[in-house]
Every structure is written in C-alpha cells, then in structure tokens.
Amino acid sequence: AADKIRLIPQDFFAELCEQIIQHLNHKIPGVNTAELCQRIQTSGVEINIGDLAKIANILSFLFSTAARNNLSTEELVTTLGSAGSTLPKHAVQVIRHVWNEQGKAIAVSEDARTMATVGQFVDMKWKLGVAMSSDTCRSLKYPYVTVTLTVADPSGQITDKSFEMTIPQFKNFFRQFKDMASVLETV
Residue 148 half-sphere exposure, CB side, CA atoms within 13 Å? Predict the structure, then answer.
C-alpha cells in the first residue's frame, strides 16, 4: 500500500484523509473513491480504483483505531513510525495535520459503530424503458423500470447497485415505500 500511496499527490491524499474523517464523523455517507480516482488519473497518475479503495480502507482503519484508543497526534505519528511503516514523508505529514485538525471530533460510540456495520443509503435513481425487440423476438414492447441505488458500505466506499423490475414489481416496490412513509409519519 505504501508504494501506491507514494503515487498519490499530496493534495489528493489530503482530500482522501479529510473525506474519511468526515465519514467517520457521520458528516458524509462515504468516500466516493471512483470520482477521486478519476480525478487522480486525469492529473496523470496511474492508479486504479481497487488500489485507491484499499488505501481508503487502511486509512479508515487507522483513524478509527486511533480514535478508539484516544491517541494524540504525536502518539499516532510515533505509532506509525514504530510499526515499521514505510509511509512516504508527505503522507505522514498529511495524516498528522488532518488528525491534529479534525481527529478529536470522531465520535466512536457503540451505537455509531453498530450502525456503521450496516452501510448507508445515499441516493436512488430510476428510469422507465421499453424493450422493443431482441435477436430472438421481433416485437417485445416490454416496459421495465431500472433502479440504481447509491450505497455507502461500512468502510465508506460509495457504490451503485442497479436492477430491473417489471411494472407489477415496481408497483409493489412503490406500495412498500408508501407503507414505510406512512409508518414513519406516525413515529
């Protein structure tokens, strides 16, 4: 991971660290590694999304463990150095700065930790389509609904999950959402 961290420019690494801290503070639902990876690649750095996601998971673990153990900035930096870490100097400087500025605000209550293991719903998009024909059937005229859910998994990685439904399935899906809304109004 240290080799991949060396590739990431300091400003992008700082942005990644800050987004992770914000996620751990429940200010944002997760870290959009796909968008950040694309921006890093556009700047001319060769890194893939899988490597960036691993780095984000490592940093998330680092910050949450430091918060759980109530480490000061100097204790965190000393621990990083004594663990035989081969982190680049710019990465240690960024970690020190971000932890010094925002680390103490991380709330690590049991409830927050339990909730974080489930993941979080971020957004939902849908579109109506009609399959006109296929190579095996000339005239389908089959309507369907495509739903894309944006979800932040427990580590904070934001992913999209897509699925298709027939119109009757979508009507049932919609009815269940209406039932949830009516129950929530009574709370």
Answer: 8
